[in-house]
Task: structure prediction
Amino acid sequence: MLTSAWKSHTLAGLFVTFCVGCAHTNALPRTDSAIVRSPASAPQVAGSSPPAGRSAVSNFVQPAAFKSADSGPAFVSKAIDAASPETLPPPSESSLGELEQLALDQNPQLRRLYQEYLALAARSRYVDKLPDPKIGVNVFGNPLETAAGSQRANLNVSQMLPWLGRLNAEQQSACFQALAARADFAAEQLRVVAEVRVGWYRLYVLDKQIETAKANQSLLGSLTDIANARIAAGAASQGDVLAATLELSQLEERLYALQRQHSAVQAELNRLTARPANTPVAVANSLPPAPTPASFDTLRSAALAAQPELAAAQLRTQATRWGVEVAKLNRRPDLMLSANYYVTDDNRPPSNVVNVGQDPWAIGAQISVPLGSEKYDAMRQEAGWRHLAAHNSVDDLVNRYESRILDLLSEIQRANETANLYDSTIIPQARQTLRADQAAYTNGTVEFDRVIRDYRNLLTLELGYHTAVGDRAIAFARLCQAVGSDLIAANSLPYVGP
Result:
């Protein structure tokens, strides 16, 4: 038996001590809490193959590795650590390989996706843990008078024990969701690299088109000089000079449009690399010969094995599979265990019937009663429909990538044949025709309008040739993204300074 004074002094102390102890109490041990035990149908997901020379994200980590917040590509960890603006490199011109690495290191979208992956990974480490225990104290305004003494307060402790199988299923679902988020991160890496390459190739095309337009300005200037000489000799009219001047004005307008497009593409490229929009970007003088892509069946198989977007969809299918298991186990009851301790004063005369001043205690158990089958049937239907939707998303992605690969192969073939036709046949013939008609105009045997028409044809063909070369390179970049592996050795492109 405890004296009334001692109990009143120590009751608050017991409460504080218990609360502090609960803060350090772990849930019941579970040896399988960090192991994904997916059904036998769980796919063996292959990862992506990022551009050569960069940190790969192909090996999707298992949930056991989620215990380390540092898990993940090294360059992303450095990018997150170096998120402050003052740590970014100063603006400078870069080659394509350097631009790709800058985008992988500094792109805000990549940082966001990696941080979302870390958040989901952290969630998978606690979702299967037991709820925190609860402790409470009741102080009676008017003591409860009993034969053993006055009861002035009671202390109660309770612990909820959910169905452990449901906790495990929730943890498996969380693990697959985290793995899917990492696959999303890998898919975004491929997209960012592809967008950098596409922007760089567009800058190459625009630079070549601007160079061609300026060269044609010089050509028009020489034609104008010839027309002036013929006018001075009385062999031509003033209209020839006016026609040449009009062509120069139209060419100047085309140059303005090309330069505006160049600024827009350069700004977008700098956005991808998290640099100031006006940072200059260097391009190569020429693109390397286009490699011959593999067959459609080979590329399709490679995409099914290495495309991280497909892997993410498959992983989400597994997550929804465990979601169905969670919904099924929601019908299982939860158990709550509790203990109560009643503080009783020693303020009664001694008795042979009761133990005066003895503190009674009690333990109890409560169980939830899942009522209303309609509610739980709806939960299972919801999970089931989500699982079917996830399956359909995988099928849709497979069909989409098959169509995309086939379309890109056709585009590569078209652009390649067009570029070769321009380079080997059409443009040489157009130049020869212009030279012949220019000489004939000097001799007065053809009209100036025919020379201008030849000039327009040559300008259109030369611009079309550079467009075809750029389309071919862009299609290869898109094909790399679709297949999930690097088909182009970007670092082999020569660097050209300002």
